[in-house]
Amino acid sequence: MRTPRKRTNTTWVALLLVAFASLALTASASAKLTGNYTKFAQCPYKNPEASKCIYSTTVGGEVVLGSKKVPIVNPAVLQGAYTEGDGEGFANTAKLIAATNGVTLSKAPQPVPGGLAGLVNCKEISNFILKSACVWTFENGLTGVNSTLELARPASEVLISENNLGGEIDTALKLPIKIRLENPLLGESCYVGSESSPIYWNLTSGTTAPPEPNKPITGTAGTLTFLEGGSILETKGTTLVDNAWAAPGTNGCGGLFSFILDPIISTAAGLPASAGKNSAVLVNNIFIAPAVVVAENDAENP
After folding, report:
1. 173 CB contacts (<8 Å, ≥6 apart)?
2. Which of 19, 101, 166, 258 has its Cβ near the most Cβ atoms within 10 Å?
3. If we measure between CA atoms, which residue out of 168, 183, 219 comes closest to residue 61?
4. Which of the four pLDDT bands, split at 50, 70 and 90, describes residue 97?
5. How far apart are CA 257 and CA 251, in angstroms?
6. Contact status, residue 179 vs residue 200, Cβ threshold 8 Å
7. What's the confidence (pLDDT) of residue 22?
8. Residue of 280, 276, 275 whose CA lies nearest to 239
9. What is the mean pLDDT of residues 185-195?
10. Per-residue pLDDT, 139
11. How far apart are alpha carbons 39 and 294 in whole angstroms?
12. Three-class SS of residue 238?
């Protein structure tokens, strides 16, 4: 375990706790949110288990999946609320509560560089049967491919640690995900990972310790600002990283023809890929506010 970065922990965690501790407000009748509070429109702030509202936008970074690298060019939003937490100090971990509209993680398709040609090079496949099937299937002009990150498990299985985020140590965000590959030829259910076998990202703002061949990479808690008189915490450039996760092969690609397409896509993309051969770097802008404060803003603006 890395030693916490004392300066970051002081400016991020301590300020967060001091500012929020003074805001023990009571919510009343529903109305509407104003100003920076509008970002929390889908926060279940009336849920008695909700401690904080969160609105996090991933604005950049990249995902390396097997032998393929996909830059993040379209913003994706993680939103909802999270609980008080179940521990103390740096062991304190909270559970996410789903957004009220059901869109806890927005679907933001990311173009795969090179499309099918970048994902699948039929000439590189040594197996004659798979190579022949690849040529027949893919060399027909339908080349665009998108990669879309989706939650693979209920929101309650997403875990958040404010202390680890601010202290730049250990896991700040545990995210069970699956990755959809979108193309007319691949059908509606072409995924890497699934509900029954998710990919788990243990994202940190600190430094990773991956198995070989990956090398350690480092995130950051970002730059901290308080908005709305100290009621809302904003961090910019928060970079969460994980390069110690494993990825399975594809499943469901091509519908009835998945028995042909799954091995083609998996072989071409270097899947399954063991831990140490994949990475995720997510650059985020994050807004956090106490649920009771958001509810109070709601009640004050009929």
Report:
1. 158, 159, 160, 161, 165, 201, 203, 240
2. 166
3. 219
4. very high
5. 11
6. no
7. 44
8. 280
9. 92
10. 46
11. 10
12. strand
Dist CA 33 CA 37 (whole Å): 6
Nearest to 44 by CA among 282, 270, 274, 295: 295
CA atoms within 13 A on the CB side of 99: 17
Question: How far does the chain reach from its first CA to its final CA, in angstroms?
Answer: 49
Indicate the DSSP class of residue 206.
S
The answer to whether 169 touches 4, Cβ cutoff 8 Å, is yes
Structure tokens at 75: 């913003």
Tokens of 263: 């091995």
Residue bearing tokens 């401690």:
51
Q: Is the dihedral of CA 218, 106, 265, 258 positive or negative?
A: positive
Q: Which residue is associated with the tokens 């004392």?
A: 6
Do 174 and 203 form a contact (C-beta atoms < 8 A)?
Answer: yes
Burial 255-266 (b: 16+ CB within 10 A, else e): eeebebbbbbbb
pLDDT tens digit sequence for 30-72: 348 999 999 999 999 999 999 999 999 999 999 999 988 999 9
